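Practice set, problem 2.
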Amino acid sequence: MAKREQLDLGGALPGALGLRKEAAGFPESLADVRREAQVREILDDFNRRVLADRLRPAVGRLPPAIARTVDVDDLVGQWSQLRERITAEARARAEAMEQARAAEEESKRAARRDRSWWRALRRRR
């Protein structure tokens, strides 16, 4: 049902499992963040939550699931490359749209010239 409704149940997972799922989404989940300082802040917060989760007592007989901290500098580098790629793709899309718009304008101008030529020809008769 969650898949059908496209619900994100990451917040419903127990501590370490939710943190693991969150870490698996890095750096793509940071694509909307604009500044490196904000990315570092988000990743530092994640590492703090991982360390806080490790301090919680184990419940039950099974050993506790442990989430790993992330290498902030490595992920910032990956985020930077991702942002560059996204920016380049957006620039390419904008250029393609501009070229398409220019081609459409040119075809409209050509159609107007053709129509005016026919009008001038009809007037002469």
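Problem 2, part (b): a different protein.
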Amino acid sequence: MLNFQSIKEFIDAFWRESQLMVELFDKRNLRVRYDDALQLVGEKEESLEFLIQRSVIIKNGEFIELDSRYLEFFEDILDVNSKSIFPIYKKILKILKQILISILMKVINPGSSNICVK
């Protein structure tokens, strides 16, 4: 197993093979056939080999999988991001609830004024 020699090499590798990373992680397609992975890296076997040698991906029979360390790393990073935007979603849901209740009240009691529910 080889290691990345620098953070630049690490970032460059993930940037260069971003289509494969998106397929493996973002789309939650944690296993991709080797031939499909090869297409995602522009038919460059040396690109797949580079990631395999550095244990970013694992060749498991005819499939390529994201190594569990990187999977956990991405999940941790993205979990932090989702927690930071949760309050925004909560406020949006509260506003939508108020709008829906107001619409329902107008349908049920057409002559009533706006009602604000907390």
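Answer key, part (b): The domain at 7-66 is CATH 1.10.10 (Arc Repressor Mutant, subunit A). The CA atoms of residues 97 and 117 lie 8 Å apart.
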